[in-house]
Write a structure and sequence with these properties.
alpha/beta, Rossmann fold, five-stranded parallel beta sheet
Length: about 200
């Protein structure tokens, strides 16, 4: 039985991103997978310092913080769900810091610049990205979805879909939109089914 890990990136308590991520996990659980939700706001961790120690150590040894609790969960999970609210046309600072801290999963050659690879690649890892937004227009989402999709693809994930819960702002407001939660559960079931294949 594979694991599906959801990362919710809002700094707010009772956030819409966490509720949307929970709905995705419900669908993945229905497909027979173990699930876990991580709310980044509950972990104290710094952004990447660019110390490059991970190039030699093959692990993040430059910072000892909450990411050390999250790394093993990322490694064990074959499915990853990453949900960020849209902040100023982009992901939240928490999500950007999380993505940057995944740099330690890369292996590099000695040449600078030179070839690189990801230790998460080639393992059938699948991902789903999504956003919650007060805005309704797709143009107002800016780069939030590619800012999550592109780094995950570089790490070796196949991104199976993108969720958008638009027009929601107050904490928990997405819970009043049954169709959005149904879409999220369906996406979770599809992700789970694909992981079985």
């Amino acid at each position: 039985m594979s694991q599906v890990l959801a990362i919710a990136g809002s700094p707010r308590k009772g956030a819409n991103s966490a509720k949307l991520a929970s709905a995705v996990l419900e669908g993945a659980a229905e497909a027979g997978h173990q699930t876990r939700l991580i709310k980044l706001r509950e972990y104290e961790f710094a952004s990447c310092q660019g110390c490059e120690r991970c190039r030699k150590d093959r692990a993040c040894t430059g910072l000892d913080d909450g990411m050390q609790q999250i790394y093993p969960l990322v490694e064990r999970a074959s499915g990853l769900v990453l949900i960020s609210p849209t902040h100023n046309y982009n992901v939240t600072a928490l999500v950007k810091a999380f993505i940057d801290r995944l740099y330690c999963f890369y292996d590099f050659s000695k040449e600078r610049p030179g070839p690189w690879s990801s230790r998460l690649a080639g393992q059938g890892r699948l991902a789903l990205v999504g956003t919650t937004a007060e805005q309704r227009s797709p143009e107002d989402l800016g780069v939030v979805l590619p800012a999550m999709r592109l780094p995950l693809e570089a790490l070796g994930y196949q991104v199976r879909g993108e969720l958008v819960a638009a027009g929601v702002f107050p904490p928990g407001a997405v819970a009043r939109h049954a169709e959005m939660l149904q879409q999220a559960r369906a996406a979770g079931r599809e992700l789970g089914a694909a992981l079985k294949g």
